[in-house]
Amino acid sequence: MSGLPLEPAARGSRLSRPISGAGLSGIILLVVFALSVAVNPAFLSWSTIRLQLVQAALIGIVAIGETLVILLGQIDLSIPWTMTFSGILASNLYAAHPHAWVPIVVVLAVGVAVGLLNTLGVWVLRVHSLIWTLSVNLILQGLTLVYTNAAASAPTVPPVARWLALGHVASIPVAAIAWACCAVVTIVALRAMPYGRRVYSIGTSELAALMSGVPVGRIYAASYLASGIGAALAGLMLSGYASQAYLGMGDGYLLPPVAAVVIGGTRLSGGKGGYLGTIGGCLSVILLQAMLVSLNVSEGLRQVVFGMILLGLVLLFARRRG
Which residues pair with residue 169 across a beta bridge? Predict the structure, then answer.
C-alpha cells in the first residue's frame, strides 16, 4: 500500500522524460514533410519521393562517417574535395582504362588514403580535427586542380556510378538500397558490437577509455577510414547522378552532413547519439532544400533561409543538451 501514492509521481516522471534525439529527429522530419506537402502536393508522388531518396542517400552515406567521428568528439571537413577528387579521378581513369573494377579501386584508394591521413593528424599528431581535416580538404582541392590543370574532367562517367545513382530495383532507387544497407551495418556496429561501445566510451572520456585499455588509435582509424571511403563513394555516385565529374561538385556537402548529424540528435562533443537519428536528419535537410526550390526562392536567398533554418535547429538541440 505504501507504494500506491508514488504511482502517479512515477507516471509523471516517465512522462517528463525527454524525447530521444532520434525521436526529435523523427518529429522534425514529419513537420518538414507536412510543410513540404502543403507547399507542393507533388511531394506525395512516388516519383518525387524517389528523387528525394536518391539525394538523401548521397548525404546519408557521407553522414555515416561524419556521425562516427562526431561521436568520438571530432569532425571531418575534408569531405567536399574527397568527393570531388574521387569522382574526377574515377572518371578519368575509367576513360583511359574502361574496366569495371577501376572506379571501385579508386574509391577505396582515395577513401583509405584520406582516412589514414586524417588519423595521422588527429590521433598521432594531436592536431585539432577541425583544423587538420579542413587543411586536408584544401590539400585535396590543390591536388585536384593540379591533376586536372583546372580543366573539366573526361566526359565518360563509369557505368557503375550511373547505376548506383540512377539505377532502380523494382522501382526502388539503387542509391536508397545501398544507403539502407550501409545504415543497417552502421547501426548494428554502434549498438551491438564492441566497436560501438568503444566509440561511445571515447566520446564520453578519451582519457578514461585509454586507461580502460580501449585501443583508441584503432577506433580513430576505423572511424576516419569509414568517413573517407563514404565520401569517396558518394563522390562516385554524385558523378553518376550529374552525368559528369566537375570541379567543386562536392562543395555543397561541407555542412549539410554535419547539420544532419546534429539534427539527428548526436552531441557535437561526442559520446551521445547515433545513426538512426542521422537518417531523419538527412531526409529533413533534403526536404528543406526541395521545399525552398518549390517556393521559387532565388539561389542566394535560398542559401540564407536554409542556413537560418539549420542554425535554428542546431541551436535547438544545443540548448536542449546544455
Answer: 172
Band (pLDDT 50/70/90 cuts) for residue 219 is very high
**Which residues, other chains included, contact 166 with Cβ-Cβ below 8 Å and sequence gap of 6+?**
54, 173, 174, 240, 241
Q: Which domains occur in the chain, in start order?
A: 21-28+42-321 (1.10.3470)
Q: Copy the grid coordinates of residue 164.
A: 548506383
pTM for the model: 0.89
Distances, alpha carbon 64 to alpha carbons 13, 79, 85, in Å: 34, 12, 19
Banded model confidence at residue 308, pLDDT cuts 50, 70, 90: confident
Residue pair 120/136 in contact by the 8 Å Cβ criterion: no
Q: How far is 64 from 66, CA to CA, in rounded Å?
A: 5
Q: How confident is the model at residue 313 (pLDDT cuts 50, 70, 90)?
A: low
Nearest Cα residue to 35 out of 313, 220, 288: 288
**270 φψ region: left (φ > 0), alpha (ψ -120 to 50), beta (else):** left
pLDDT at residue 58 greater than cutoff 90: yes
| Cβ neighbour number for residue 312 with a 10 Å cutoff | 9
